[in-house]
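Morning - NAP inputs below, output right after.
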Amino acid sequence: MSRFEGRRALVTGGASGIGHATTSLLKEMGADVVLLDHDAEAARRTAEDLGVHAITADVRRAEEVETAVADASRALGGRADILVNAAGIYRFRSALEIDVAEWDDVFDTNLRGSWLVARAVARGLVDVGQPGTIVNISSTAGLVADRVEPALHYNASKAGVIALTRQLAVELAPYGIRVNAVCPGLIDTPMLRIMDDPVIGLRYLDEMVPLRRLGRPEEVAALIAFLSSDEAGYVTGVAVPIDGGVTLT
Ligand code: NAP
């Protein structure tokens, strides 16, 4: 039997990068999957390719999230019991140059968005007395500072995702809902910017990343799948780096 046979998953940011790889893997492992993204056309196209359901919503907007989670239940024929919060944005700018609008956008997407979707999904599960799992995507940026690409708002939002994960893990444990986070390092997705200048990018990999390569979205998806599976049944509230060793030194 596939590991996720009979389970229903909602993956935000599923049209690209880590969310896309996770949608694909969960589907391959037997789950019925809804991908949610704010780009309707990208969501529809990706869902068609992967044979999953698509829902368009902006995770920053509470009402859209509520509607999307209800629509996901209808599409899946029951509450999603796997949530992967992969929608996110990255902006790099020095601390003194960040303006309020950009700060709010980064926080609203990465932190508030993760909370809104987790709240809607968890309330639905608690209502029907069903257990489940939530995996949030933080970052090594939530664990350590970055001298190469400053992004104070991004880093603070990702540290917030770790705090969100821990607190939710404690409060949702009595309902059988496990909540964990992954902290990716440099993963080869459209979001990655450090390789825009290959000279700086390759020097960074050489000097800062013990495994000396970028991570693949499929590798992050595999960790997310493990944390969502029964094999990780005693794991909750952790923030697991997947970073080629970048946070070791
Ligand atoms: P990605 O390829 O840009 O995928 C993120 C997806 O989320 C995109 O489809 C994006 O749409 C969508 N999205 C953005 N804002 C949204 C919103 N308000 N509502 C709904 N969907 C929205 O990036 P990724 O690298 O896979 O990143 C996935 C997660 O991993 C993010 O939380 C990111 O911070 C985290 N992460 C990535 C790395 C890395 O090196 N790639 C490292 C650490 C952590 P658009 O394309 O239109 O923006």
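Note: Strands lie at 8-12, 32-37, 53-56, 82-85, 132-137, 177-184, 239-242.

O.
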